[in-house]
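thoughts on both lines:
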Amino acid sequence: MQYYWTLRTDAQSPSTPDHGVIPGGFAELVFNVGDQVSLSDSGSIFVAKAKSFVVGPFDRFRRFRAEGQLELFGVRFRPGRAPFSSDLPLGEARNRAIPLDAVWEDQERRAEIHALEFRLAQVSGITQQMACVARFLNKLLRHCKEPDAVLTQALSLIAEAKGQIPVETLAAAVRISSRQLERKFTQHVGLSPKAFCRITRFRQAKFLLESMRGTHGCDLAYACGYYDQTHLIREFRWFTGQTAVGYERVQPVGFFLYDDLPKCYP
């Protein structure tokens, strides 16, 4: 299963605002049809202009700055179902953007990617962008293996437990060793089982905070399996750049989740 999304903002002044990414645990194909996007803390280029990338899952909050117009078109894949994880261990793409044409050595595949980048630069509108990318993905998916059954089961158990499951218990439930489970997650998810559980638990806390306004910090912490309110605050700082109270008060504009982007299309 994959979803298409778009994100577009125009720079209105010389002082371009930062954009924050809150981790969602997903790998993406991201096509930059705007200007280059840089990491705010280092100034290094994250995604170049008119290029396509595999963006691995983030395991912490990151800030980015668009050098002009921010316009991204992306495809979000469910954990464990990215069609390129057999060619690129997603652990190598964690917190990174890897040029799509660097994933394969096959010159024909690289030529297809360059042609796709050129077409996306020429078309306008989500419908045309989706059609271009869908043709590329349909061809790619024909050569993909079925999702790993053990990994799929493990991901389902994490979702059911809302991230509150020890890795040892998870490995025992799917009848493999913790080390084997770690290798599967690194290859096909891009995060360790522990990190993925941590993000899943945070997402539950974020959901409860947004849907139950005024929830007391201690109650929220215990409901989501945190040791105490201090633990919850520390996790919110790690994943959103601010405390839970600060996040609830501001509902920050310019921040987005890779699992909750505007204009998502199934």
Remarks:
- The chain has nine helices and eleven strands.
- The two ends are 8 Å apart (CA to CA).
- Residues 149-245 form a domain with the Arc Repressor Mutant, subunit A fold (CATH 1.10.10.60).
- The chain has two domains: 2-145+257-265, 149-245.
